Amino acid sequence: MKKDIEQLPQEQFERIHIDSSKAERIEKPSLSFWQDAWLRLRKNKAAIVSMVVLVLLVIMALVGPHLNGHDGTTQNLRHANLPPKMPGIEKLGIMDGVGNLSGKKIDLYAMKKVDEYYWFGTDGLGRDLFTRLWEGTQISLLIAFVAAMIDLVIGVIYGGISGYFGGRTDDIMQRIVEILIGIPTLIVVILMLMIMEPGLMAIIIAISITGWIGMSRIVRAQILKFKNQEFVLAARTLGSNDSKIISKHLLPNVLGIIVINTMFTIPNAIFFEAFLSFIGLGLQPPNASLGTLINDGFKVMEFQPYVLLFPALVISILMIAFNLIGDGLRDALDPKMKD
């Protein structure tokens, strides 16, 4: 067969010319890991909406206390227990200053001769709840972010050293972790608050004492996974020291897991701070946080539900937003989810 083809005259074969400029090109733009992750994150509508909502809440926590001209700590008993009243919206029959008094609906602002607007009403001491809500949100976010950053730093360093060096170092460090994780967190927090004066710093330290354990175990597992792979062996062969290998080669490969875990740590810290404040172990009056505001609202929930409604809504939105962002980051930073 081959000989028959070789004996055919060359004129019977036609040369095919392909125009490379018109040829279909199958190519994908070169993207870095973080650029590709951002493109995938943008496809997650829930995560993007949650990011926008979270940014708006942070902005309101910063500027909200200065919007209506009322101070969150000033007491005015003549203005106590006023329902919400907001200009413009009051004409719609909602947030119009009408409250229940002895089973009857009465305009409490007119009855008490109050010519001011309290957008979210006032508490039993006449303090403006709108201002206190955003001051409390500010404190809760501050505690959560600082506690999460402390957990991040301690957990990454501790887990990185334990996983990289292994052997007896790993055994000793993990026994310490097992001892700490065996002690209930609430007991540790109560002991810390008994030793220290209750306040902002005491809560942050109490949350951070055992909060870093989860991060350290995750980082340790990832370091154990990567430390014997070829790129680490190549770096060690080229003379890189241990600190450079950990910081330049290992940590960038576990950065995605660290970011995801941090995004879930923040709402946990917000909820735990609110829980401590709710049971009376958190911030002390006149300071406000979402937990103290919810505690105050819970006491008068039957007669003044608006005192509980607004802080409960804010903390619920914060928890949902952070968790949806965490889910979106987990999908975006997971190479297995890549299209």
TrEMBL record:
PANTHER family: OLIGOPEPTIDE TRANSPORT SYSTEM PERMEASE PROTEIN AMID (PTHR43386:SF24), OLIGOPEPTIDE TRANSPORT SYSTEM PERMEASE PROTEIN APPC (PTHR43386). The chain crosses the membrane at residues 46-67, 139-164, 176-195, 201-219, 254-283, 303-326. Residues 137-326 form the ABC transmembrane type-1 domain. InterPro entries: BP-dependent_transpt_permease, MetI-like, MetI-like_sf, OppC_N. PROSITE patterns: ABC_TM1 (PS50928). It is a multi-pass membrane protein. This is ABC transporter permease.
